[in-house]
Every structure is written in C-alpha cells, then in structure tokens.
Amino acid sequence: MGKRLMKGNEAAVHGALMGGCTHFFGYPITPASEISQAAAYYFTAAGRTFLQAESEVSVINMLYGAASAGARVMTASSGPGIALMGEGLSYLAGAKLPSVVIDMQRAGPGLGNIWPEQSDYNMVVKGGGHGNYSNITLTPASAQEMFDFTRKAFELADRYRMTVFILSDAYIGQMMEPVEISGPVLHGQRKDWAVYGDSQSRKNLISSIYMSPALQRKHNEELQQTYRQVEQEVVDYELYMADDAEIVFVAYGIVARICHSAVHALREQGIRASLLRPKTVFPFPKNVVEDFAKRGIPLAVVELSSGQMADDVSLAANGNVEVLRYLTMGGETPTVAELVSSVRRDLATLGSRRSS
Amino acid sequence: MNHVRVRDDECKGCAVCVSVCPKGCLAMSGKLNTMGYEYVHFFHEEACTACGLCFLSCPEPSALTVLAEQEVE
Amino acid sequence: MIGQVQKFGKSDSFYDTYERKGEGEQSTHYCPGCGHGTIQKLIAQAIDDLKIQDRTIFLSPVGCSVFAYYYYDTGNIQCSHGRAPAVATGVKRTVKDAIVISYQGDGDLAGIGMTEIVHAANRGEPITVFFINNAIYGMTGGQMAPTTPLGRKTLTTPFGRDRDRDGMPMGMAELMQAIAAPVFIERCSVATPKELLKTRKAVHKALQNQIDNKGFSFVEILSPCPTNWGMSPVDARTWMDQQMTLLYPLGNFRDSVTKQDDRPGDQEEPLWLDDEALVDLLKGASDVPVMRMEPLSETQRVKIAGFGGQGVLSAGELVATCGMSEGLAVSWLPSYGPEMRGGSANVSVTLSMEDVGSPLVDHPNVLLVMNGPSLDHFEDQVVENALVFVNSSIVTRKVRRTDVRTIYIPATDLAQEAGLVSAANVVMVTAYLLLSKAIPLDTLKRCIPLVLRKKAFLEKNLSLVERTMVYLQENGMV
Ligand SMILES: Cc1ncc(C[n+]2csc(CCOP(=O)(O)OP(=O)(O)O)c2C)c(N)n1
Ligand code: SF4
Ligand code: SF4
Ligand code: SF4
C-alpha cells in the first residue's frame, strides 16, 4: 500500500475525512492554521463543510450547533484559541455532545511564541472550562498518528458522547512523514438524541441545564461514570524496550520522539533506558506507571512544560519511586545529548543514595 | 354570543388583557387563584367581538381562549 | 345551527403541559405581564400557521427566556450566553431544511453576543433571529443592558445610565441595516394591540423568509420587563408606547425581495464525494511507489540550509520523498516560524532503516549549505566525517573544519546555465545523493515529478540532474 509524504497537520485533515467528519469550523492561529487551510481545501473539495468563523468562541459554538444536529464536527487551534473555547467546551460536556478538537500546543503564557510547548496539558486534560468534566485526550507522536488518532477520535466521541482532544505540538504538526491513508471511510450514524428538524427528533432537547441540585448531581455522577468507563476502555500507550528497564522515560508527542533516540543512545552506553509513551493522557496510563514505581524502576518525565504531566506521573507513582523531571519551557526542546547526560548524572546520584 | 374562557389557575393577574380589550369585557375578579394571583374575569358576553386582542396580549399560552359564535354543522 | 368555535387558543406548537418545568405545569415561568410570554405565543402561532412544527429547531439563549424549551414542542437547543447565532450557523449548515430560530435578549445579543450576531448577519445565514429588547438584564435581576436608556437607574447604574461612562443605548436594527446581507429587518413592539398585530405579521414574514430560503431575517421586538422596570405591566406598556419608541423608532428597515440564491457572487456548491471518490481525493496522484534494493549504510541526518527562495524546504522534501520511495523510514522537519522571518530557512531530514526517533537533527552527518550565513551557522554542528556540500556560486569562503569531507559545487551557476534560476537545490540534492550513494539516481528522477510544483519545468529539472552528474564526473568527484 502506497504512502504519501505529508505534514502532521495535513494528515489530521485526511484522518478527519476518513473518520466521517463532515463539518470543520476554524479560526487561524499558528501553528494550527495549516490544519484549517488543509480543511478549507479538502472539506470543500469533498462537498463537506468548512467555515472560517469570526473567533474561537464562535467556532466552538458552531461545533455545538452542528453536533446538536448530529454531525461529526471538529476544529483545530492552539493555546490562546483553546482557552477562548473554555466555556463552549464545558457546554459540550454538559450537553453530552461529541466533538473533536486539535490543540497544536505553542509556548505561553500570553501570546508567548509559536514554538512547541506542552503547557496546555492541564487546560486540556483537566477539561479547559468550568465544571466537573473530562475530555478524552489523544497524544500523537508522528504524522501517521495524527492521521490514525484523528480518524479514531470521531468514533470515540460518538461512542462516549464526549469531546476528544488531539493534544499535539508545533513540531508534530510541521513534520512531514510518510502517511498511509488506511482503513475504510467511517460514517456517523443517526443519533437518537440529536435534533434534525424532523418529526422523529422533535421531542429532543440539547441542554446542559438541570434545575435542581439533585438532578444536576445525578447528571454529574453519570458523566463521572462515563469517564470511569473511558478509563477502563480507552487507555493506550506504547512501551519501548521496557522489558529490562533500568530507567523509564515518560513522554508524549515530539518529546517522546527525542526520548526514543535517547533510549538508543543510552543503551549504546550500557544504560538500559526505556520509554513509556502515553497515547492517551486522559485516560492516563496510571497502572503502567504504578507498576514501574512498585518495581522500584525510576521514572524520568521529559516534558515541555513546568511539569504538568509529571504531576500525573507522581500521583500514579505514589511515592514508590523517584520521579525525575526533565522540563523545558519556552519553545526549546531537549537534545538527545542533554537527556543522556541528565540520566547518567541522576542514575549515579540515585545509585549512591541507595547504597548509602 | 362570543365567549372568552379564562383558566383561573393560569392567569397571573397582570391586567394587560383588561387594558387592551376595546369593549371592556374583562375585569379583575377580586379573587385569588392557587398561585396567589388575582385572576381576570370575563363578564360582558354581549359586547365581545372575539377580536382576540386579549388573547394575543396575554403572556400566558392558555390562560385565555376566545370562542366565537358561528354557524356550525 | 349556531355554536361556539375556538378562534384564539393555545398553539399546537406548545406542549400541553410543561413537564420540563414541573409535573402537569400549565403556566410559564415568566413574571406577570412579561413581554417574553406574549412574543413566544406569537412565534408559536406562526409555527402553527406555517406548518413547520416538525422542522423547527428553537434555540434558547441565556436570559429570562433560557427555558423556552419548556414550552416549544419543537427541536430545542439551549445555547451559551450570546452565542446562539454561531450555534444556529452550525445547525443550519448541518440540517438545511430545518427552520432555525434564534431567540435572544438584549444582553445576550447586543452585549456579550455582538460578534456572533454581526457575523451571522453578515454571512446571511438563512435563519430567523428574534431580538427581545427590554432594555435591561432581566434574568440577573435588573442590571444595565446595552439598550438601557440614558438616565435610567438600574442595579449597576444606581445614579442612572451616563453617556460618557456607559455609552449610548444601542440601536440594533439600525446596526443591522448597515450590513448588506440581511433580507428582512424590522423593529416592532408589543406595547399596544396595533403594534402587536404588526409584530405578528413581522414574525410570520421572518419565518416565511426562512421557509423560502431567502436569507437572514432580524426582528427586534420592544418588550416590557415590568419587574425590573419597577412598573405595573400596564404602565410598562404605556411607557414603551410613549417613551421607548422615541429612542427606538418602529418600522420596517428592509424587506428585500431578492432571494438569497439569486444574489451574485455565490459559488456552486461542490458535490458530496462518496467513499471511493473521497479516498481518491485524499490519496492524490503522489502515491509513492515503494521499493528498496540495498540497505542504507548509515542513518542519514541531513541538514539543508539557505535563504528563503532557494528551495531549501523542497530540497528536503525531495530527499525525503526519495527515501520514502526506497522504503526507508523518513522524517522532514522545517525550520520554523520566527526563524524563517530573517529570510533564512533550513530543514532537517532523516533517512533510516529503522523507525526515526527524534526528527530534530542536532548534529547532521550531511550538510547542504546554499548560502554563507548557513555555513557560519551549521559548520560547527556537524559530526566528524560528515559530508558537507557547499554552493560555491554563492558561498565565497572555504569550510574551516578539517575533520569533514567537503564538496564545492557551483550549484547556482549550473542551474542558471540550464535556464532554471532557482534550481540550485536540485543540483545540491543530486550531488549529495550521487556521492553518498544513499539513493539511486533513478529514484531521484522518479521522485522529482512528485515534488515539483511547476510541472512545466520537469524536463529542464531532469536535464539539470544529468548536467550535475556530468559536472561531478568532469571534476573527478564521482
Ligand atoms: C458567560 C456568562 N456571563 C454572564 C452570565 C449571567 N447572565 C445570565 S442572563 C444575563 C443577562 C440576560 O439579559 P438579556 O439578554 O437582556 O435577557 P433578559 O433576561 O432580559 O430576557 C447574564 C449577564 C452567564 N450566564 N454567562
Ligand atoms: S376577544 Fe376582543 S372583545 Fe372579546 S374580550 Fe377579548 S379583547 Fe375584548
Ligand atoms: S393578560 Fe393573561 S395573565 Fe394577564 S390578567 Fe389577563 S388573562 Fe391573566
Ligand atoms: S424579569 Fe423581566 S424579562 Fe424576566 S421574566 Fe420577569 S418581567 Fe420578564
């Protein structure tokens, strides 16, 4: 089967169309604009709907409307835009509407810059808006995964009636790699809860309002129930050279790629490094982390943030083992050489501490 | 004769219907309904033209129903 | 026989009882004398008359009418504050036959939602907007709205609305009038029976327009909020009739006869592609055939650098495409953003027999420099024994490193001689592939058409490859 060389950003749009997405609403922001641009071409050429909205606030509400009418919907943005969508994301969660949102993370806070960071982790993984809710969050690390995960996201969104985030970064979006346009074209089915403007759906109501505390509580509990189910059914990760692990990198996105190289570099030097690469961060692969921690294998979280995912790793490790944090902020990425020397230094310190 | 049926329990006593009726067919009843509002009272069947203005002005969907006298089979 | 028949009564478009409000409920949640109730009845009646109950999707805003879905036996969507026109856009572009009604208060539409309404109007979304102007924030207890008259005391203007501090009351119908797309704009009122009947007509018309797919219809309706105005329902209507209409003159602002579809400038709607056609579109023409004859001796970590316009990124794409066509794992990562602004560009390409880990090439073993600053920038980063290709037409100095293998090629000159001013990149790539033997020349020739944007130059590019080969041979490099 042939492949095409394409950017992660373009692959996402291919994945979306193969995933049955019919409506893309966008607003330009670097480094996500290329996704909207590709959608403007492919969605329109395919007779699907692409619309550039007047703001991210409008974007997320257009998603809300189209999803209410049963469509498979998506958008793509970056930190400042996702932040503006906060209220709308919360409404989507409250009204149990499926949607797919891509966040190509850039450096913040504020306008920051357009280099890659992973500092939207808390905003996206912990919800992004007000109220108790979660988003399924997929973390691709290649152009192929931008395709595969986006395609799959629409199935997940419909199955659980939730927002599914693709949490990516500027590099994964910019990078070109061979992508296989695989699988059949998926299609959304008619939803018994959506409003189509016809007699069968006339009684349906899309709303996030539950007027009494008792009903609102019940609604909240049902949502949480869904999230627990998602934790059982959706969690996904890759273990790389982990059988004989002496230390385990934990990283996603572009950083996981760098760690992959660092694993090889360390092994050439006799250190049995491994990689745990979460493909979902909600649900977070807690059990795997816990397992390493219980076996006393140190974890090294490599992250382009102040340690937002590292907190989740620490929580899962539960004090059973050292959680090292190799953090970079501002748009820089660690080099393989830097990671190698950090690991050598810290393993030595840990070793001497243990033997003393 | 024409008739305006008032559902006492749905009337909120705003008196808007009273004020718009060109024929003065409606008045406050002096009595309270279960919600505690003084409901309206239709009393002047002879004058009512079934014009519907009372119904159209009333904010409640079914507090008033206007019935017109006409040939029926 | 003489009998009595119902002439005015509850609309079929309302539920019999409002179960969402409470078991067996028959009355609304509105205060006595509230204009919302009256207006919603007019809308329900129009839905009945036009026989569009099944098709209607009613959008409830945030405001006192947030619970409109208690009453309407139609499809219902409750929206966030001010965003109903965006939601309506999403709905209407999904179910084109639905009759989409956006019902909004003045805080909702003229305050927080100003952006959404203006842009929905400007796009001419074929929806119907009912704008309930009661000059106050009702639901939150009576704060100033954009429409509150000057001098009016509210909870947030305890000394009265002040022009310099709070601005002038906002005339939305006038604002809509400044936008070209809407087909119907009218301001009416429920203050008097006469106005009420006009409102009924306007509501009807605005919905009929949507049925006829005419375009965007906007009906502003002056409406009393006796509770927060501190007036009796009857006095409130008198005040509206005598005072409010001075500020907000009633009347039709626009009633266009042109159908939306007949307006000039519309593109034809593209056809919906079925699965097969969609896959064809996505796979495109550049499906790359994959075959690898010989193993790669060493992972290629390539950096190509120059200034924008030298085709640095496409040179990288060509190398990556060749690698891909050979069945290698490849990655291509461009220099990015601000780095590009100074006019310089570079790209990292990795070709490998195994999965590519980091696509970032910190320490290249192949460097192609197209201009002087790039050599300055990257010379120190390459590993020992790296291959360094220098475009000697432009780079005047020599490479200082002695632990690398350097190849000087007058790439720009060769390209110019071949009549391709901007194809120095092809010369550089050809030289690299030939000398490194990473990719066979045939593969390069096969891949050039896949990457080339201007197909007319294909032949010239291919002959430039030949010319480069001859040059390298003549100079004893291969
Ligand atoms: C984002 C957001 N900000 C503020 C509010 C609080 N809020 C609820 S209703 C309302 C004003 C509604 O006024 P208007 O649109 O005039 O409608 P009315 O109640 O007068 O009918 C406000 C500010 C909210 N729900 N959401
Ligand atoms: S129908 Fe007309 S005349 Fe009769 S009570 Fe109502 S407003 Fe008065
Ligand atoms: S207008 Fe309606 S609610 Fe008000 S008094 Fe008359 S019947 Fe009652
Ligand atoms: S507060 Fe005003 S707008 Fe709200 S229901 Fe009461 S009267 Fe109507």
CATH class of the largest domain in chain A: Alpha Beta
Total strands of chain A: 15
What oligomeric state best describes the polypeptide chains here? heterotrimer
CATH class call of the largest domain in chain C: Alpha Beta
CATH superfamily of the largest domain in chain A: Thiamin diphosphate (ThDP)-binding fold, Pyr/PP domains
Physical arrangement of strands within the biggest beta sheet of chain C: 3-2-4-5-7-6-8
CATH superfamily of the largest domain in chain C: Thiamin diphosphate (ThDP)-binding fold, Pyr/PP domains
Order of helices and strands of chain A: EHEHEHEHHEHEHEHEEHEEHEEHEHEH
Kindly describe this structure.
- The complex is a heterotrimer of chains A (356), B (73) and C (478).
- Helix content of chain A is 44%, strand content 19%.
- Chain A is α/β, with parallel strands linked by helices and 356 residues long.
- Chain A has two domains: 231 residues, Thiamin diphosphate (ThDP)-binding fold, Pyr/PP domains (Rossmann fold, 3-Layer(aba) Sandwich), CATH 3.40.50.970; 119 residues, Rossmann fold, CATH 3.40.50.
- Chain A starts with a strand and ends with a helix.
- With 73 residues, chain B is α+β, with helices and mostly antiparallel strands.
- Chain B has one domain: Alpha-Beta Plaits.
- The longest helix of chain B is centred in the N-terminal third of the chain and has 5 residues.
- With 478 residues, chain C is of the alpha/beta class.
- Chain C has two domains: 244 residues, 3-Layer(aba) Sandwich (Rossmann fold); 179 residues, Pyruvate-ferredoxin Oxidoreductase, domain 3.
- In chain C, strands 3-2-4-5-7-6-8 form a seven-stranded mixed β-sheet, with helices on both faces. A six-stranded mixed β-sheet of chain C has the order 10-11-9-12-13-14, sandwiched between helices.
- In chain C, helix 1 packs across helix 7, helix 2 runs parallel beside helix 4 and helix 3 packs across helix 4.
- The site of thiamine diphosphate has 17 residues of chain C, from helix 3.
In short:
The complex is a heterotrimer of chains A (356), B (73) and C (478). Chain A has 356 residues and is an alpha/beta fold.
Topology:
The complex is a heterotrimer of chains A (356), B (73) and C (478).
Chain A: E1 4-7, H1 8-18, E2 23-26, H2 33-45, E3 49-52, H3 56-68, E4 73-77, H4 79-84, H5 86-94, E5 99-105, H6 121-125, E6 136-138, H7 143-160, E7 163-169, H8 170-174, E8 176-179, E9 205-206, H9 213-233, E10 237-240, E11 247-250, H10 253-268, E12 273-278, E13 280-282, H11 286-294, E14 299-303, H12 308-317, E15 323-327, H13 336-355
Parallel strand pairs in A: 2-3, 2-4, 4-5, 5-7, 6-7, 11-12, 11-14, 14-15
Antiparallel strand pairs in A: 1-8, 6-13, 10-12
Chain B: E1 3-6, H1 16-20, E2 26-32, E3 38-42, H2 53-57, E4 64-71
Antiparallel strand pairs in B: 1-4, 2-3
Chain C: E1 2-8, H1 35-50, E2 56-60, E3 75-78, H2 84-92, E4 99-105, H3 106-112, H4 114-123, E5 128-133, H5 163-166, H6 172-177, E6 184-189, H7 193-211, E7 217-222, H8 226-229, H9 233-247, E8 251-255, H10 275-283, E9 300-307, H11 312-325, E10 329-334, H12 338-341, E11 344-352, E12 366-369, H13 372-378, E13 387-391, E14 405-409, H14 411-417, H15 424-436, H16 441-451, H17 458-474
Parallel strand pairs in C: 2-3, 2-4, 4-5, 5-7, 6-7, 9-12, 12-13, 13-14
Antiparallel strand pairs in C: 6-8, 9-11, 10-11
Helix pairs in contact in C: 1-7, 2-4, 3-4, 11-15, 11-16, 14-15, 15-17
The structure holds thiamine diphosphate (TPP) and iron/sulfur cluster (3 copies).
